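Chain A, query sequence.
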Amino acid sequence: MPELPEVESVRLGLQEHIRGAKIVRALQFHPRALSPESIAPLAAIDDCKITSVNRRGKFLWFVMDKKPLALVAHLGMSGQFRIDDVGQSRHAHCRARFRMKQGRGEFLLSFHDQRTFGWLRVDELIKGTPASISHIALDPFDEKFDRKAVITKLKGKRTEIKRALLDQSVMSGVGNIYADEALWRARIHPRKLAEKLSEKELATILTSVKRVMKSALKAGGTSFDDLYTNVNGESGYFENSLEVYGREDEDCSRCGHLIKRIKFTNRSSHFCPHCQPRR
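Chain A, predicted structure.
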């Protein structure tokens, strides 16, 4: 699933291509493209101009000029936005399409989703944030992110630190990949209890989270296959810089011991037993 660096890469591309463009017509091609929680059909945003593309954690939303509405998007496992030329044939996995007008020219914005876990939603804006994601915590790149408050929340969690990092009500944007990578950088075992970690250790984890995601963003995110691409169809290349995620039984670049993988609910955690002891 795309995490913060991948979603931010998509946001930057969308902001560059569609800010200021008018939605001439919105079309839905698959019943699951529109979330059941949408307050209106996609046609409700016809004739609206997109003034900005915003993000919180793994959620995107397009702000409109005429109505107190936003188009919210979650990429799920394989969602993609693509910029297409008018007249270009519809891709087999295109779930929705928007005919856009920018100045005198027109183009298409397509939403592809092979696995159909992603969705679009028309939502009401409340103080600049879509109502349906108001419960999602700020992410480390938000200017209002309260580092001390997040450390306090993590300290109060009676669960493994890996699970706490994935809690989007504590801090958004972190998924399996960057949680593993941040914990490796911080030398913290994924199964250590959050409440047992010191404030210094938790601060180190937060620093590692932001640094690894910043590096991933510079690389355009992590792409293991063609299910994640930016709006130009390009893949990210941070996979080449991953230290533990997906590297089971490979040598740790820091100490030479083998990277291990353990089951974590319905996921996996990758770590170095030598660099990240559980004691």
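The chain has a mean pLDDT of 95. The two ends are 31 Å apart (CA to CA).
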